[in-house]
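Below is how a single chain appears once it has passed through the pipeline. First comes the sequence as given, then the structure the pipeline wrote out for it. We keep one example in the README because the format questions we get most often are answered faster by looking than by reading.
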Amino acid sequence: MKIAIIGYGKMGHIIEKIARDRGHEISVIIDAENEADIDSKAFRKSDVAIEFTQPNTAVNNLLRCFSAGVPVVCGTTGWLDSLPAVKSVCESGKGALLYSSNFSIGVNIFEAVSRYLAGIMNEYPQYSPSMEEVHHIHKLDHPSGTAITIAEELIAASNKVDNWKEPAESAESSEISENHQHGDEDANQKDTDSRTLFISHRREGEVPGIHTVTWDSPQDTITISHSAKSREGFALGAVLAAEWLAEKCKKFSVGPLKLGSGQTGFFTMKDMLKF
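Resulting structure:
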């Protein structure tokens, strides 16, 4: 299989190695210096592309993949405000995309377990959920895209929380508690917070990623956690997703995709893993 790599940072290098180890050919590698190569003949002949870049370039990269008739696996986060528009292109049959905030098989299993646990907890009002994510110091955005995905899945399965947000800084919280006057506004805020899933974050060293969901009660605490050991799990999952998407789509020209009855061109890891 011919794989095009868009984005040649740390993830791109690991994806290249894993893809070659699995017997695939790298048709073209596109980075900031050679963006025009996405319009090249070599790119158009690719069976699938894997895109890991930046939020400000991801959407344009995806649309150019669609125009070239190349299915694309995307792991870039931070652009999801544009996802409905991109998804609409796929659903119209003019592109094929498998998107995930995290391609780690373990993380996706963790998401499924968290979703299942949230459903169980609907019967036990004494438990309330919270989340924490830990990443390396080079990761500037927070909470992580993976944490947001886990949170949204938990919220969808839960009757306890209906939104998420990051907790206020401890200093700000202290100031608020000292200066805030009690009253209807305070009561309304407390009621809103009781329906909120709080996601805290830490940035430490070179941590690849740790995501923890905690359910706390006055009697005990239940904690589930996923800890990545390296970026290789993410890269392997992306290559597996590329293999799956290429097989799903086969070769296609620009225009309506032939994906079978009831299928569109937009997929997630749930489709691949059949969760």
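The CA atoms of residues 249 and 258 lie 7 Å apart.

See the next section for the split statistics.
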